[in-house]
Amino acid sequence: MDMSLNFQPGQIVSLKHGDMNLYAEVIQVVVSRQLCWVRPLVLVNFIPEAPNITDLRDASDLLWPINLFCPALDTEVITILSQVLVKEPKTEPDSATKQQLHQFINLVWQAYQDTNDPNTIYGT
Fold it and tell me: Is the pLDDT of residue 63 over 90?
């Protein structure tokens, strides 16, 4: 059985592309359509100096193919989320934040459409 079908509401999942990871909270899994409704939390760009973390807690939810997500490990996200959760979320994400999320989603979707192979997106 596909591990992703076991996602539970409240679970943190990851959507990876290149050096970037979108971490999101599962809201609902739509098994019949193989989709996952998620609420973005942070977008992390793993650059050599230090990760660049963008707070997305007030961004729009996403409904994406479930096979593009993988479970996020606690050790992966605890440090990242602890840096973001101590701050108050903005009432409205700024345009630069919206643009970063939009660009990332476009890159992932394009990679998915080009190959329809989730392993290409994960870089494995």
Answer: yes
